[in-house]
Fold each of these.
Amino acid sequence: MIDAFLNYAFIRNAVFALILSSIVCALIGVIISEKKMIMLTGSVAHTAYGGVGLGFLIGVNPLLTAMLFAVLSALIIGYFKSRGGKKSDELIALLWSFGMALGILFVYFTKGYPPDMQTYLFGNVLTVTKSDLILMAVLTLIVAFVIIMLFSDCKALLFDEQFLTLRGVKTKLLNYIILVLISLSVVVLIKSVGIILSLALLSAPSAASALFAKRLWARMTLSFVFSLIITLSGLALSHFLLLPAGAMIAIIAATFYALSLIIAKIKK
Amino acid sequence: MSLALEVKNLYAGYNNTSIIQNVSLSLCEGEFLAIIGPNGSGKTTFLKTLLSLLPLQSGEIKILDKPHFKMTQKLGYVPQSADINRDFPISVLETVATAFNKNPLNPFSFLNKEKKERALCVLEKLELSDLYKKNVNELSGGQLQRLLIARAIASNPRILILDEPTASVDPASREHIYSLLNKLQSETTIIMVTHDLFSLSKGITKLCFINGDLKYFGNPDIDKDTLFSLYSNGEGTK
């Protein structure tokens, strides 16, 4: 594996992509888990599929158009949620299907050979290009910077949003910022594990870290370590067994969480 | 003595339904008001309207002689413990420090030495300083209530508003909470929603019975028969 890393640029790109994915999973995964927004995140990720299709149709990097779709869908959901929308659950489901449907239509209208959409649905970290990596690095930097900058507000929001609102903090704005960060994180994960499997990586490491860490920062740090273990071991196994990397990572993520539950129970 | 709270002909509720109707009352600074009433009578709706968490449908609320929605930062709120994320990984000290977040957003506002000292000072007052490193989910019901009071007073509120602070705590903790509230009464006006009639003998200066509209507002030395009739049929002396 080390030989492959040293000799092949695509393996190096894959490793760097997984490190970046682990950073966003650690930071945003914990927030998603505490705000119980995993289905919302699923909807944002699947709406991004429409953006991927649009990218192929108009001939731009599909990750850029996926980002546009992801951010737009997150803002729409955020708007309805902030108005106390009791129908936000239905909206989440509708956007989920709508985005996927748009993606299929856009690809249908794309001229020439149909693009390989499987790469975006299930991920193929070995196809990450240098330009993908630069975009992923920029998005990861934005996510990390904003979360570190607003760490104190995020912590207070996750504990008791109502109290923070009474203190005069713009919690609506903060919620919108979090939604945009979730969208950017989803885009970082599309090439690594794909739209469908991204949920495994956004939930398993943060859920496992919750079993062992007592502070928010410790939980994020532990979640990063767990994400790294899951993604890099998934890549290594897929390399040796000649299996799809995205699927291996998702299976290891689920197994890792199950093992963590058992270890936590034994420790108690 | 100047007025801490003035409510005139208040109607409030959710969507187009008024949960509370035509409530008028006033409270002087330094007083301790207990709001009682049956389940679903509008006590929490009344509190949330005072806190500007719910819009008022009609009427007027003034806090320290100013419109209530301009005064939220002068209020310290102690929610029901069920309203907070109790499993969240946050320490007792960090919880109190969340009260120091007050700007539209607080970039790079980390828990520095000065904030730690301020938070510890408040915890000392609420007799919680020994527990400052503990996680919130390690606290008992009574300790958690005292922590939420500590967080509320950390911002030096002019009015402390509590929503059922003695619900789900044991008798010893309940006694402890009332004695702390009585100490705080010298620094702040207190408004407390409660189901606990035991509280009426604990330094309360005004009593309010709400059941949709205001059924009683006045002296807490109300006789048991009147109180029983208020609970049984919602009628009483207004």
Amino acid sequence: MSTAVNETSAGKEPLIVSFCCNWCSYAGGDLAGTSRMSYPANVKVIRVPCSGRINPMFILRAFQRGADGVLVAGCHPGDCHYSTGNYHGRRRLSAFKRLVEFAGFEPERFEVRWISSSEGDKFAEEMTAMTNKIKALGPNRKMRDARWQKIT
Amino acid sequence: MPRTGVFLCHCGSNIAGTVNIDQTIEASRNFPGVVHVDEYRYLCSEMGQDIIKKAIEDNNLDRVVVGTCSPRMHENTFRKAAAEAGLNPYLLEVANIREHCSWVHKDMEEGTPKAIALLRAAAAKVALNEALEAPKLEVEKRALVIGGGIAGIQAALDIAEAGYPVDIVEREPSIGGRMAQLEKTFPTLDCSACILTPKMVEAAQHPNINLITYAEVEEVNGFVGQFDVKIKQKARYVDPVKCTGCGICWEKCPAKAPSEFEMGLAKRKSIYVPFAQAVPMVPVIDKETCLYFRKGRCQICEKECPPQAIDYEQQDEIIERRYGAIVVATGFDQMDPSIYGEYGYGQHPDILTGLEFERLFNASGPTGGKVVRLSDGKPPKKVVFIQCVGSRDKARGMNYCSKICCMFTAKQAILLKEKLPDAKSYVFYIDVRTAGKGYEEFQRRAAEEYDVAYLRGQVGKIFPEGDHLVVHGVDSLSGKVVDIKADMVVLSAASIARADAPELGRKIGINTDSYNFFNEAHPKLKPVETHTAGIFIAGACQTPKDIPDTVAQASAAAVKAVGLLSKEMLQGEACTAEVDEAECSGCLHCVAVCPYTAIDAKEIEERYGDGTLKRTVAEVNPALCQGCGSCSAICRSGSINQKGFSNEQILAEVDAICLQR
């Protein structure tokens, strides 16, 4: 395995981890692909069953490991495949965002978006917008754990 | 250490065009646990699948990663192939290299590192995958149809004909629904009762159909194949077995109430059947207006009933039954147009809604089939129809088009001319929308042969003047203000969802759109399915629609239900949640967030010192769990985890992606 540290945080291309729910946003990402709508390769998607599956721990871990931005995407409120998962997700993640801000971290690095399976264009737009925003913010220095990067 | 094989698909040039296959394969070789790598032009092909199968056998692989198109596309294909090679299918992960990488990035410089990152994440995840088994679920071979209108009747008949027993639950004392209220149907002018009542009778007599009328669904539990439903059978106060439907009771009953079937335009008795062709022909006693129930005396119906079928002691009953599939066909309501003060609905007896006006044509309706003004009983000379009352009105009504009004207005105008050749109809409209077989021709006939005047424009005010109603509107095509001295005004009030549709939706676990119509699973490709497996929708409870569309949708829903009932076993969700009882503190936050009531509290006994200790933990019913993972996210102690998407697996993916290279 490569022993290279995350070069993103060292000032190169930013890394954005996106957690997408399987039913809406991940499918929206598929549609963006099928429609050949391009967006920056900085975004890497992790498939989860539902935005309600997202434990804030996952987001913290991404930042700790050097991600510069995290975008959680789920079904529009009211359209959850599991009927209420995104409502719980919305509450949990909005509280989490405040906590992150309170702790002195840039809250802009973490966003939640509702993208349906028919919104391939929105998927591409949101991913592009997030990347541009994170590029402007610069690398995540505050929450990146240098010790972990040494280990790897 | 796992023995993982990584397989990369070129997908022709779809992947290979923007992802350097050789570089990616070489990088994959170095992922932890990877012992075998390979690539092929089309992995989903027979040949491609054989490569994977052979490699599993030859290299003794216990984990597989495929870098291909979206898992939503071919995950099943590859899992099946893995299973054929003797590997548990859940030990395979798909990295989405096509939709999420090669198709959205412009060149290999961008595509290759990302493909490597996605494959690395999949390999990190798959190392933690466990062999899973999807639970097998039995299917109760019986269907429930909620709503006994034309949609429910058609769906029930189709399911019954396919050989499965069906119950129809109908809220009213008779099946028939809205269609039973219609005089004629467009565009053929068939008599509605003449085509509907044979179907009602057929449903009642079908050996596979059981009618549960005057009843409502109280509670639905369970899941596809095994819905446990509680149905409240309201007390009729009439024994349906003894009753012969002779009609003496309602003839003799002295108490009256407005008839729901006649839209309140006529009275019915307190013991009544809603209409003459009711099925079943068994009356109900309306407790609210019955003299005996109100004042304790009367009992005329009991005295007069020849077979002594009246039973004042009858109680509401709960029927509990299990169903494999449910078809929801609860229909629609008509909007109350009195919020439009300018139209004066409710303030003058000659201003009616479309459905009310329809009843005037019916021989058994409030006027005995004579189209007359309700104010003075005289036949009208001029009737003004106003379209889109409540429909297509962003500000005060509904944004949508109610779809049926243009056509039923043309129908009523034609019927009016046939009944009263001297009468003249005027129609104020925004657009005339007549999409449908034979519809446009029908509407043109109304305008050209039946002398119906179509005026494009809106009505600003309706006010009584002497004997007449003055309709003050604008003809926007000529730009002129129009005042019509009308005898009657008919408002095409919007078709709206049933007021209790959201409540019913919550009970059965399906959702509604912003207008409270039930949501289909996909607007184009899954028009009768809902997001809840095993529950289907048909008719105007989904969105306003006419009879042909309703019947077509009902048959479609029936086919879906039959497809489900014909299965011996269903495969449940394998990626369910599981509880680590040793860690669980029994806070039961998970119970609160579970949308499927799949989690319950359980008492366990543990050894503690010399004795035992009882404590509460959470328990997941894997048959109910749909794998959303909400419980895992809310669990404070991390003791409830989701198989297939465990905390550890997701974190491993995060770690692998953040390595970036």
Amino acid sequence: MIDGPVLERHGLTRDEYERIVQFLGRAPNITELGIFSVMWSEHCSYKSSRVHLKTLPTEGPQVVQGPGENAGAIDIGDGLAAVFKIESHNHPSFIEPYQGAATGVGGIIRDIFTMGARPIALLNSLRFGPLHGPGTRRLLEGVVAGIAGYGNSIGIPTVGGEIAFEPAYAGNPLVNVFCLGIVKRSDIVKGVASGAGNSVYYVGAKTGRDGIHGATMASAEFDDKSAEKRPAVQVGDPFMEKLLLEACLEVMKSDALIGIQDMGAAGLTCSSTEMGSRGGAGIEIDVAQVPQRETGMTPYEIMLSESQERMLLVVKRGREADVERIFDKWDLHAVRVGEVTNDGMLRVKQAGSVVAEIPNRALTDEAPVYHRAMREPDYLHEVQRLDLDALGSHVVAGRLRAGGATATRAEARMENARAEAGAVQPGESNAVLLSLLASPTIGSKRWVYRQYDHMVRTNTINVPGFGAGVVRIKGTSRALALSVDGNGRYCYLDPYRGAMLAVAEAARNVACAGARPLGATNCLNFGNPERPAIMWQFAKAVEGIGAACRALNVPITGGNVSLYNETDGKAIYPTPVIGVVGLLEHADRVLGRRFRRAGDEVVLLGEGHGELGGSEYLKVEHGMVRGLPPALNLDVERSLQDLLVALAAEGLIESAHDCSDGGLAVTLAECCFDTGAIGADVSISRTGISQNETLNTAAALFGESSSRVIVSARPGQVAAILDRAAAGNVPARVIGRVGGDALRIAIDGQLVIEVAIDDAERAWTSAIEHYFARRVA
Amino acid sequence: MRFGIVVFPGSNCDEDAYHAVRDVFGLDAEYLWHKDADLKGALRTGAMARFSPIMSQVRAFAEQGGPVLGICNGFQILLEAGMLPGAMLRNRELKYRCEHVHLRVEHTDTPFTCAAAPGHILRIPIGHGEGNYFAAPDVLDRLEANRQVILRYTDPEGRLADAWNPNGSANAIASVCNESRNVVGMMPHPERACEPLLGGVDGRLIFESVVTAMAIR
């Protein structure tokens, strides 16, 4: 019988239960209750977020498919479309890092090939607690191995991504995975069921008891009992998925298919109701026909299982044999489990008798929608206050010592770097630069990305660690640039501005590769929406995303919302992660972050304003997360991106690197890395933000003002670059020259940084690697 | 001359090899489905799985002296099938590794290295989790004595150094051939290094060698 505890286990409120009774005109049975609970879970219904998501810009001439399908799509010329989406697998990855991350990759790949597209690239965005913290290394190792294990085996390259380490994620890591595929526009397939009498097919792995209530789990907070939920994490099989991928793409080439959808969250339930709902049809399924891995499974378990690598297809009546033949070729068994009806119902049968009967609409369009209460969080005013003069009075005596193991490590590394630097006079700023480069959030991610096969399919022309990931499109002259970005710290300090900055950074990274940003996908990671402060963060972030996407002309074509990212009542930083896809007309014009040769001029596009709020500098050097994130003028940002695309297309610049975490000094250092130790000599001016000269210097070097890019160019091209910049209203000036084997930065004529590239690069390269020092001799 | 690229249900780099042969070199290539028991053409490059019907055909083809190349997973399958000596262990650091490595060409009397000079250094990517070549000491001695080690991992100057051995392979072995020298397995991916856009063209040498070898035959 359905009482309070049963409802609670299903994550349903009393009001929601009453609504169910109203829809059915009777009390639901337990199978029906299970179906409602997963379809009305936050994960599937977007009940808290939907009213806000509706405000996002989703249209544009380039948009082929907006939100609502398995993935979005944009036009990329030559009759082709790029299909892409980002999705979270945070909760499963925390409980079981390897399988949680692996099945996240498997799920997003299925979303892409379900649209008829061949997946050609993966990205990921990860957040963990500090690397020295308990359990973080195990989590990072497991998540990375899981992503690698799945992506590498199925043969889709992971071409980029980002990782940040913050205490706010220690109890709730984020694993967001992005996939992109290519399809002929005319061949796009949809997740739709229509035509009464058409056959419903099940293909792929057998159904087991794994993952039952995964969607509900993803819609609840964590506590110390979460480990007991391990059976709700699924196990991935990339070999099965590879077969499904190839077989489904082959089936799609025949005209026997009406629609197809993968069984992801909420498994058979979600795929059948969504397909029926999109086609205005009903679906009848006989669970006895569903291939099962375990004996004695109930209809409830079969409908709610989230076993991986399963697809649901609607096949034209009379064409069943054609479809079965193709799956046979791939050693896959396609089973007819039901048919399309015209009564709009999800009807589940078991050996002839009806065990569940629910109107599709009740599960989809008419699922609850909440206008949750919102309130500005109490912490906000306090953390936005940044008193630089007070900070400056401490800095006079030397750098503040932040507490904890990070500081100790950073100190030790700095001392080493100073000793190794030898002849170079170690200025205060030198040490700061080295410690920023050694911060895992800024440092090289090579330890991570070399575990990913980033070259398979032989399309990757910008590999991870060198800017946006770039893949050429075989058979055309074009390439696609992809970037995922987000900054939880900025969003914690100001969710509206932080979210805008995330969109701007992702689009800017794409533009730095020379590609015109065309479309975006978002993954919105937040805490418990039932808390008004969290809901306020969410609403502000969505507003910010909308504003930036409109201004930069990158409509949102789909995405995913992950709420309840809390452990023991402590929420993560609000973390919208934005994936942007851009098009490069000529693949061979692609740009990367690295300086190319000595003698080239270094040009700064954009302007610094000495903003230290929310910076990595404040965090690493002063143990402080404070202030307002950098201001963003969207008109300037748009002009800057237009200029970059034009400069790249004309072949006027040799490299381009976005100025973000760690500011100008870190950006310049990164331009010098992986070049065989080519340095640069740069001269900039001070910004007066404080009475304290040390802070003013720090602001100029390490402030994270937005809309700035370092480009390098042959001396003969500089005049043309400055012309184009002036015409586009983008501030631009030559700040130095590539050459030597050290990075030297002078402020108003005074040398403040002089670091040998070898030393700087060692600090940067070992930032993550030294935590995993080789154990075997 | 025609390349046959064996396609197994789980193989990944078949399309990459096909692209390299057809689109980069403009040569004739076709896919061979693993369930087929007919080779259709002449020369094969790519991955193979031990028990599929096509493997007995590949073995017969090799026994007649036909050149067979196994790349990465293909090398592992040739080892499994006993067509090459040794075995692959997990990488020394127990992690998948994808990056460019430097390889020294040890011998040029195989169909896949004949266009190189001995000591030639190639920069070609690897991408594997199980590429730690292992064989019993007496097998290693025999391989060395028979000049069957074809490529070795080295530093950029061609010197042996532990830090430049990406997976812990015995004797820094990246590639071996059989005693008849017509069957070669290699862990690095030459098909990933055939176009300047992809960051290097040193892999072309492997394909150019086949063309040269077939022209001589």
Amino acid sequence: MSFSNLLMKSGLTVAVRDAQAAVLMTATRQGHTIRGKPPGVARSLEQRIREENVEDPEVVARINIGFPQLKESRSAQLKKRLEHLKSQRSDKQLEQLARSNKLIIDLDKVQRTYVKTTGQHDLRLVADHYGIFEHLFGSAYFVPRVPLNISYQLDGDSLAPVYNGNVIKPTEAAKAPQIDFDGLVDPITGQAAGQDTYWTLVASNPDAHYTNGTAECLHWFIANIPNGKVSEGQVLAEYLPPFPPRGVGYQRMVFVLYKQQARLDLGSYQLAAADYGNLEKRTFSTLDFYRQHQEQLTPAGLAFYQTNWDESLTQFYHDVLKIKEPVYEYDFPKPYLTDQKFFPLKQPFNLYMDKHRDQKQVNKEYLERKLAKTHPFEGPKKPLRYPNAHPIRDVPSWLRTEIRKERLGTGRVQDY
Amino acid sequence: MLKITKICLASSATSTAQRSIALTAPRAIDQKWRAAKGLPENPNAFGPLTNLPDYTYLDGRPTPLGANQKRRLIKQQEIATRIVELSGELEFAKQRHERLKANAESEKQRLIRSKLKPKGHFLLKK
């Protein structure tokens, strides 16, 4: 009812005579009102966000640049699985082992079967989660068909394997890892290739470039690997250990294995021995490299790990890279400080004066006072056993407070 | 409730009718007849008595413009200048909109063309 009170009042007497009293009571509504549209009609948060972040499906469409995989039909797989199950159930020896709690499951065999079946798809999902494809290939992706076994040699007989994003310290990754993959198998059919195969291995770090945020740092480049023998490949860039700077957290080191159609001449990517530690020369772009050779190369294998700073990198920056070690720390905003007043009321004068001085100078003066009370050979004085039992006389009250707090170890001494 | 509505509507109509009466000079003229003839609403704003000079010289000299004539001429010039300016801005806005749309479309095409060649199951057809 949008009529004004005057009109309502003038017409009320007429309505009362003709209409019933119950009709009037329905004009008013008690209780709260729902703001906006009811829940079933209004847009949900997901819908609202989707409408605000409109994406063109043609632009964001992802492209598969990897190998397909030929598999037998599902009925054949099911038949094979059922036969395996039947043979397992009719195995008397297996039954005896199970009943006597002596059955040991061969986990290596389980791992091999997993790698052949769903392991590579899981690796693709993990790589998607860590942004490997997005930062290396843009809107492209691939399912790695060739399992890569990469491990770093540690002291003794220990190995640090590279899984799908585990953490390996720069100390453990100081030397070139051992790489093992089956180079004689066709990635599409899973059968023996029958002729010589050539592979290319690229190890790069998308997070390690200091000057170009979109480029990568090339850590290792081996081309024309014959039949999976990495040691016989052509090394275009010698292995450079990872060097994550202090304070930036974890960096990703990605190994990508490409299958070549034939022998390739990648001499233009050769890194001279004199430029081993030159980071600018190690600028690399996987997307540009692959775009240039995408008719001859197809990505077939993938492995990556994470690494962060440790103490051995100080020596590495000094000796190998020959640069000063960078340290990243958070740049906190400065606390707000009003202009200095001539008469700061209700402020302790010593704290107020120090607040407007250079903090480094204040720290220096504290250190000087501390060293002045320290004997050069006998060391600092022993702290008082009962600090408050020793009277502090003939000093101003603010200085008495300072001395008392210093003896107790509270107050400003904890700031230094 | 319907009766209340009727009474209120009647009151509103009465108030509106009373409040809408206006008495001004142009209203006394038969505007319908003038609109049918293509004449302006205000007879003094346009016409021979307004636009033509009040006198002429017998020897053919041009008559100087009157103050109001000059003011109307200047006003017309300003209006024409304003029309040209605003039309230019409108044309620029249209061209800019077309240019931005073409740029967005070309950028989208560039992104689509810069994608890598798809492989995957396409390799099986070789």
